[in-house]
Amino acid sequence: MPKTKIQKIIFGLLMSYSMAFGMEIYNIAVKMGFSQQAGGLSSMTNDVFLPALVEMSYMGAIVFLCSNLWGNRIGASFAQKHCNITKDNPYFCMLLRQAGTVAVMCPTMSLVATILFNIVLNGDSIWQLPAIWVGTVLKNFPMAFFWNFFAAAPFTRWFFGFICQDKATESIED
Question: Are 12 and 68 in contact, with CB atoms under 8 Å apart?
């Protein structure tokens, strides 16, 4: 896992953009009405991917900023309160950190999305912000949780390991 400041930035960017990509695909598919069709999200078409890539380009940067300012710190604090890395299984501690981070980042990014997409771009009343935000959190939390645990985090760990292999280990194996 990341050891240097540069590696932490690379890991954070990978995680932020993989989370943003999955969440944008989900939200655009819902917005396009695929969740209401007979096959549900299984009826989704490729029309979802281009708008998701466009929105991911800037939402990933916002995820990276928010996670570095408070999301990762609160997630780590949550894990420390419920897990002792010296006594408990490190994998369990990592999962608790992920859960704590999702519990903070989903409401945070749902608020950002509500303000951006509903209030600013759609012209909804600012007075409706609390209701729209709560609805957005309720819609997004299950997807954010499962996407993080079963797709974004495993992909990020694998890809990070692939691109940031320890050069000392390579020279020993040669």
Answer: yes
Angle of helix 129-147 relative to helix 5-31, nearest 10 degrees, comes to 120
What pLDDT digit, counting tens, does each position of 122-132 carry? 999 999 999 99
The amino acid at residue 142 is P
Give percent helix, percent strand, percent coil of the chain, each to the nearest 5: 85, 0, 15
Q: How far from the centroid of its chain's Cα atoms is residue 112's Cα? A: 13
Q: Which residues in the chain come in under a pLDDT of 50?
A: 167-174
User: Of 139, 129, 130, 80, whose CA–CA distance to 106 is shortest?
Assistant: 139
Q: What is the dihedral angle through the alpha carbons of 157, 159, 41, 110, rounded to the nearest 10 degrees?
A: 60
Among left, alpha and beta (phi > 0; psi -120 to 50; other), residue 37 is: beta
Q: How far apart are CA 142 and CA 148, in angstroms?
A: 10
CB atoms within 10 A of CB 161: 12
